[in-house]
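Lab manual, section 2.4: Encoding a predicted structure.

Procedure: take the sequence of the chain (191 residues), apply the prediction step described in section 2.3, and record the output as structure tokens. A sample record is shown.
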Amino acid sequence: MTSNPVTVTVAYHVVPGHESDFHSWGWAMLAASARQPGFLGGGVLVDGEAEWHVVYRFAGERDLAAWEESSARRQWDVEAVGFSRQTGRKSVRGGKAWFDSQAPQPAPPAPPSKWKLWFVNMSAVFPPVLIFNVAVLPYLGALNPLIRTLLLCLCVTALVTWILMPRLQRFFKKWLYPPLQALRGRHKRTA
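Recorded output:
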């Protein structure tokens, strides 16, 4: 047995119309368990009025076992039979497990294929290079080719990075990431 705190949550289905009976019973049962050594706290919770939970925490497994195996605890269970039915029980040692996600995380979308990326990049780079070569380079013919090329790269890179690529990525998003769009579409239909 460990000395880590143990938290137990017990789920109940409450007979409609007996919610206040269950609420009173749950808090009275927790008051009785508070007299047990090692009791750290508890509460009665409702999950959208469909499922009720009684949550209690003890300092260790020995203290929890002493409470759950006691005649007083069995008596409380007998009292609840008229208006509720236990549907589940979960016990967790320590506190970390309550905050760990139980649902598997979806895999990130696969990156677009190389030819699609090539197409989007060419769509972003070709127009400014063409415009720069036709409209600007004839006026820079006397400049050193190194400086001329540097100016071309600076201007085209700035245009592509801050103006063209963000717009093209938004425009081609459904084409570049179809599985992600399919997931989002299903989510919107069910919500």
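Check your result against the sample. Residues 145-171 form the longest helix (27 residues).
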